[in-house]
Amino acid sequence: MTREVTPRAAESGAGATDVFRQSGKLQGEADIPPERVNLLAGELIKAANDIAEKHAVTYEEFNILKAWMIQVGEDGEWPLFLDVFLEHTIEDVNTRHREGTKGSIEGPYYVPNAPTLPSPATLPMRENEKGTPLIFTGSVKNTDGDALTDATVEIWLADDDGYYSQFAPNIPEWNLRGSVPVDSEGNFEIECIKPAPYQIPTDGATGKLIAAADWHAWRPAHLHIKVSAPGYELVTQQLYFPGDPHNDDDIANAVKPELLLDPQPNDQGGETVVYNYVLDAE
What's the predicted TM-score (pTM) here? Predict the structure, then answer.
């Protein structure tokens, strides 16, 4: 794959860490009972000790682990590591009660307060933005089938080189990011590009682990979506494209059959995908 920019993992990781710090989700702001902390932290520590006992972990391996964990922090890659390897389970546990649209992981590259664009919308793009033109359209309803006319669809995606604005150099701040309120009938239409598959950053600590374990670092091409409406549960998604070679071995293990799109050629020389949302009441 040809790359025109070469962001470093540490720069991307630092950006993801800064976004998380600004999100208001830091542990010091959470109200988690000590009993819950004791349960979760205790079982995590026990699991680590059980692994050391079961596999007779050596001091060399233990010291490599410590050095690697330090490097993850210095590279700012804890958001990347946790989102890639753990978030899919957290998402599943927290949304399995829903009757409506299935969700997926958020990932480390969400940035709030993207520009608001009326539907039909065209995402901010560079002149002659590379990639197949894509129209993403659909509707937002509740589980009773009523249109949610005050819903908003947020969307962000990697460019044709696999990079996200605000996490790689030489890309305009809000490139391929937008927040689109639905129209008076609960419908939306968003013009963008078809994103490319990409590797998560491999020159930092997470990449070193992937290489040492002989894993691959590829994510299939996907659109990132958040759909919200007052009084309804937020749906966060990644939507995927059929035929991608990494749909079956996504490093983040986030692909679900319900999240596969069905692109169709359109008369504008690109593709159109239709995806309709059903939100659960809070």
Answer: 0.85
